Amino acid sequence: MSAPPNAFWPRPRYRSGTSGAARTSRQRSKRGGGPPVVLVPLAVAAIAFVVLPLVGLVQRAPWTDLGGQLDSGVVTDALRLSVLTALAATGLSLLFGVPLAWVLARSTFPGRSIVRALVTLPMVLPPVVGGAALLFTLGRRGFLGQYLDSLLGVRITFTTAAVVLANTFVAMPFLVLTVEGALRGADRRYEEAAATLGAGPWTVFRRVTLPLIAPSVGAGAVLCWARALGEFGATVTFAGSLQGRTQTMPLAVYQALERDRGAAIALS
To answer: Which of 81, 85, 82 is nearest to 244 (CA)?
Structure first.
C-alpha cells in the first residue's frame, strides 16, 4: 500500500504573532514616521515668531494696575459690543453664506467663476477699502443709502448696525470658501439615495446635506467669528469709533495707544 503524496514531508509550522516581514515593515514605518530634519528648525522658528510678540506684550503689562484698567466703562462697553456684533455677523454669514456656498458648489451658470472671485474679494482688499466701499454704498450720500435716508429715514453709518455689516462684509468669505470646499468633497450618493426614496430638495438639503457638512460649517463659523471679532479698518471707516455704540475692542486699543500705552497693553 503506497503512502499518500507528501506523507513523509514535514508539515509547515505556523507561529502565532506577526511575521518577520510585518515586523520589518513596522520598524521601517517607525523610522520614517518622524518629520524631515530640515522642517524642525523652520517649525521652531514659526512658533517663536508667533509666541515672542505675545511674551513681549505680557512682559510690558501693568500687572499692579491691571484690575483697575479692565474695570473701566470703556473696556466693558467695547468687549460687550465686540462679542455681540461678531455673533450677529456670524449669524448673518451663516444665513446668507451657506446658500451662496451651495450655489457656487452645486450649480452651473454663466459667470460662476466671476461670482466666486467677487465673493472672495473682501479677503484680499485692505479693510479700509472695504469700509470705504460700504460708506459709498450705504452712506447718506451713497447710491443706496441716499434712498434709504430720503424714503425710509434709515441711516446706517455710525451705528451698531454699521459695525455688524462691516464685520459681515470682511468675514463671510471665510465661511463661504470653507463650506463650498466641503460641499465639493461630500459624497453625493447619500443625497441621490434620499432623492430616489422620494425626498424633496429641501428635505435632502436639511436632512442629508447639512449633517454631512456640519463640521465644516462649524469650522467656517468659528473662522468667521474670529475674523469679525478682530476687525478694525472697515469698522472705523464705515461706523466710526463711538463708545458704547460703534467702538469695538480693536478700536478701543488703538485709541488707548494714543493716550496711555499701559492702558492699551492692558486692553490687549
So the answer is: 81
